[in-house]
Amino acid sequence: MKATLFLHPKVLIGAVDKRLYGGFIEHLGRAIYEGIYEPNHESADEQGFRQDVIELVKELDMPITRYPGGNFVSNYKWEDGVGPVAERPVRLDIAWKALEPNTLGTNEFMDWCKKANTEPMMAVNLGTRGAVEAQELVEYCNHPGGTFYSDLRRQHGWENPHDIKLWCLGNEVDGSWQMGHKTADEYGKLAREAAKLMKGIDPSIELIVCGSSFSSMPSFAEWEATVLEHTIDLVDYISIHTYYGNPEDETAGYLAKNDDMDRFIKGVVATVDYVAAKKKSDKKIMLSFDEWNVWFHKSPTDTNSPEWTAARDLLEDVYTMEDALLVGGMLITLLNNADRVKVACVAQTVNVLAPIMTRKGGGAWRQTIFYPFAYASKYGRGTALKLTSDCPTYDTTFKGKELKNIPTLSSAASFTENELVLFILNRDLKNAIELDVDLSGFKLKKIIEWVELRHDNLKAVNTEYEELIKPVQKLGACLKNSNLIASLEPASWNMLRISLV
Ligand code: AHR
């Protein structure tokens, strides 16, 4: 099977915002307690942060981390998580039927961010709370001093403002499961007031308004349009979420799911641009894809841990080789939409739907999905390029739906002054693809490396003790005149780096 790709240094998608490679840490399951924070662990630092986890987060190179939720934030009182730890209340977290000890809160999380080389992306509760509490949190975090909340922060031991730049106006308010769920109109009005007050305290902050929880929400598109009718002049981004799964073992269709993600993005872009046009506004609302991943191995009820306990083992999906392929594909889709998706957060970072897993008192390890993320984050920077591809297609079914003409290759490219990077997923489960990439517009030097992620067993997983799925350095690709030639194994994710003159 043969495929050709064409790209040119002058045919651009746009600048890649480094925040495309963000993460997410929610007060959920063992993400925080036993995840990033475990004071009795042998690798814990003076604040109780697991340094083995911090090292892995640094390897993922996540420029931002969303916090504290997720569904959790929609009933969270941020005041519970600040001040002397011994005086903090223990609460029932209704979102995840768990106990929240509040040992870790806003200030500790800010310290963790510094240690993990990531910037905070803070969500406010617009479910059960309102604009004023959001405004007060901005004052607590960002105002230098001399006011009630900023002085409270200083009294709590954090003299300097945290200067949090990026804020989420609630979480998944469109969903009936959300505490404080609202109609688009109700939410749009509340988000507008919150935005006014929050930017009133700190005009330099950027705001993300809630879009749809997934594309098949009945309210999708109408929700985005209504919410933006209320807020377009005050917000900068609209948030969207999606998770995919393969419960019935339909791998060929599953691996095409990043094309669905692409359609979702295009639909949101069309909707936000429609509102701008209608309002005669030249504002371009960008997208924050602040929850995306594979999620189907474990449901919230699929757990051995009793309800209303702390650090429950919730949503600890163990990812397979094929999940890593789809995650690689989703990163390709994000890169191909880099002109409009400026922020994205893999959901989540540690233990909960996560690239990093930990054992209490034990090790920290890389799940299969760790690798495509780490490579895309490290090398998928600079400027995204448009790719034209001519490759075989296939037909399949997924959950009873016919899928036709799926391109076997899903690919993206980015480049900096002296390097071109190609990310290519071969979705063909049986056949290698003989690839020929026309790079005649580039001044090529040499192939730096070809990294391949694949395994004969698509259900293979990594554990604390054995890393079955990890990338290998491949040989055999070559530059022939101005073309790159390589043979891509079936069901493989590939990254090719080429140095430029
Ligand atoms: O990431 C897990 C959950 O998925 C989040 O709390 C919620 O926002 C989404 O539904």
Describe the main β-sheet briefly: 8 strands, parallel
Low-confidence spans: none
Ligands (ions, cofactors included):
alpha-L-arabinofuranose
Query: What is the overall number of helices?
Result: 10
The neighbouring-strand order within the major sheet is 3-4-7-8-9-10-11-12
Distance between the termini: 32 Å
| Average predicted local confidence, pLDDT | 97
Domains (count): 2
The beta-strand count equals 26
What characteristic shape results from the CA principal axes? globular
Describe the protein.
The chain folds into two domains: 2-8 and 385-500, Golgi alpha-mannosidase II (Immunoglobulin-like, Sandwich), CATH 2.60.40.1180; 12-384, TIM Barrel, CATH 3.20.20.80. Helix content is 24%, strand content 27%. The chain has helices at 51-60, 106-115, 131-142, 148-155, 184-201, 222-231, 251-254, 257-278, 321-336, 370-379; strands at residues 2-6, 12-15, 23-24, 64-67, 91-93, 98-100, 119-124, 166-169, 206-210, 237-244, 286-294, 341-346, 356-358, 364-366, 383-385, 388-390, 393-398, 401-407, 409-416, 419-426, 433-438, 444-453, 472-473, 478-480, 483-488, 492-500. The protein starts with a strand and ends with a strand. The mean pLDDT is 97. The chain binds alpha-L-arabinofuranose (AHR).
